[in-house]
Design goal:
Layout lengths: L1 H21 L9 E10 L9 E16 L2 E14 L1 H7 L4 E17 L5 E5 L2 E10 L12 H5 L3
Antiparallel strand pairs: 1-2, 2-3, 3-4, 4-5, 4-6
C-alpha cells in the first residue's frame, strides 16, 4: 500500500512539477480553453480483483466571458476489461466495464503573485457506469446466393 502511494506521488511530482515551472509566465487572455487527454487506467480498491487494467479519454473545454469568469465542461470515458476469475464466477465468456461523465462547471480564476492562477470550480453533471457481457451467438443465414459464396476461388 505504501509502495503504491510513494510510486504515485513520485509520478505526480515528475509530471506535475515541470508543468508548474513552465506555466508561470503570464499569458494573454484567451476566451476559449480546450484540452484533451488519454491514458492508462489501473485497477485499485475493492474491485481490483474483478477489473482488468484499461484506458481512458478526457475532453475539456470552456468559454471565459471575461478574464476571471467562465464556464467549462468535461467529457470523460474510461473502459476496462473484466478478469477471467470474475467472468468464470458469473459463467460469462467475456465482458467489459465502462464509466463516463459529462459535467458543466462555472469557473472563477483567482490571480496570484508571479503569474500563478488558482481556479475555483462548482457545478454538476452526469456520471454513468455500464457493465457489458459479450456472448457469441450463432446466426443462421439463408440466402439464394449461398452456393456461390461457398465455392472455392
Amino acid at each position: 500500500m505504501m509502495r503504491h502511494f510513494i510510486r504515485n506521488a513520485l509520478g505526480f511530482i515528475a509530471i506535475g512539477l515541470p508543468s508548474l515551472l513552465l506555466g508561470q509566465s503570464e499569458a494573454s487572455f484567451n476566451r476559449l480553453t480546450l484540452s484533451v487527454g488519454a491514458g492508462f487506467t489501473t485497477r485499485t480498491g475493492a474491485v481490483a480483483s474483478d477489473i482488468d487494467n484499461g484506458g481512458n479519454f478526457e475532453l475539456n473545454g470552456g468559454y471565459f466571458f471575461h478574464r476571471y469568469f467562465g464556464i467549462t465542461g468535461t467529457f470523460m470515458f474510461s473502459e476496462s476489461g473484466i478478469t477471467r476469475s470474475a467472468l468464470n464466477a458469473l459463467n460469462e465468456p467475456d465482458g467489459s466495464a465502462s464509466i463516463y461523465a459529462l459535467t458543466a462547471d462555472p469557473t472563477v480564476r483567482l490571480p496570484l503573485r508571479r503569474g500563478f492562477v488558482a481556479y475555483a470550480l462548482a457545478g454538476g453533471g452526469y456520471v454513468g457506469r455500464d457493465l457489458h457481457f459479450h456472448k457469441p451467438i450463432l446466426v443462421g443465414l439463408a440466402s439464394t446466393h449461398m452456393p456461390f459464396m461457398l465455392m472455392p476461388g
